[in-house]
């Protein structure tokens, strides 16, 4: 029997975004720079037939924590969006001058919708999980009305 382990990060992480593609729609609130306190649920499963407390779930938990730390208090932006590039540069200038640091930006290949962010997190975790552990479910809740869930079983 395989073992299932859940990581529930209902303690949210904050991020900012602005959806360039949505700007065309004008009235869509996501066209303006805004933030979200998102939460994440991750479920992984051991592929081993042997029940064991020695399964490397600790590593899976570290990977989930790692991706949350990467996204927390970041600007999540589409890499080809010229306005986001300008905004990121402005942030770097501002933080550089004041604190000698750069801003936290996570660049994505597509506009940062809930689905795109959820898939980014899923890929990040999948690519780093130790052998014998697979990602089975991920639920990204950007707002109570903007939820994306992937079931990978
Ligand atoms: Zn939004």
From TrEMBL:
Keyword Lyase among record annotations = yes
Molecular function via GO: 6-carboxytetrahydropterin synthase activity; metal ion binding
Q: What does the record give as the reaction this protein catalyses?
A: 7,8-dihydroneopterin 3'-triphosphate + H2O = 6-carboxy-5,6,7,8-tetrahydropterin + triphosphate + acetaldehyde + 2 H(+)
Query: What keywords tag this UniProt record?
Result: Lyase, Metal-binding, Zinc
Whether Metal-binding counts among this entry's keywords is yes
Supply the EC number(s): 4.1.2.50
Domain of life the protein comes from: Bacteria
What transmembrane ranges does the database entry give?
Answer: none
Which PANTHER family does this entry report, sorted A to Z? 6-PYRUVOYL TETRAHYDROBIOPTERIN SYNTHASE, PYRUVOYL TETRAHYDROBIOPTERIN SYNTHASE
Annotated family: Belongs to the PTPS family. QueD subfamily.
| The protein's name | 6-carboxy-5,6,7,8-tetrahydropterin synthase
